[in-house]
Specification:
This protein has about 110 residues and is α+β, with helices and mostly antiparallel strands. It contains three helices and six strands; from the N terminus they run αββββαββα. The longest helix has 16 residues, at about 90-105.
């Protein structure tokens, strides 16, 4: 199943002015990197986000959020958010901002 191009378009509209970001096809979807570190992406109809273990665990209590598991092994510090979890651009920007903050604190690759 291909990734949801509409979600990708929405992400692009929000992050297009962010510095030091790139995008790359991975896991059958699209991932976005900040300074070489993945911070978000689209897998099927899900937004995937790298929030770190603490914020990722806390996010699991929110509606429409589940562990990021696309290979049979959940990724620590990553979550998947169904489309109902980011209906508005403001919701999406909030999620992306959290992932940007986490990835921005990592050493550049």
């Amino acid at each position: 199943m291909p990734y949801n191009a509409h979600i990708e378009e929405r992400i692009q509209n929000i992050i297009r002015h962010w510095e030091n970001t790139t995008r790359k096809k991975m896991f059958g979807g699209i991932c976005h990197l900040l300074n070489g570190n993945m911070f978000c992406g689209v897998y099927r109809d899900f937004l995937i986000l790298r929030l770190g273990e603490e914020k990722g665990a806390a996010a699991l209590g929110r509606p429409h959020v589940r562990p990021c598991d696309i290979t049979g092994r959940p990724l620590k510090g990553w979550i998947m958010v169904a489309a109902d979890g980011f209906r508005t651009d403001r919701d999406l920007a909030d999620w992306l901002g959290q992932a940007h903050e986490f990835a921005g604190a990592l050493p550049a690759k």
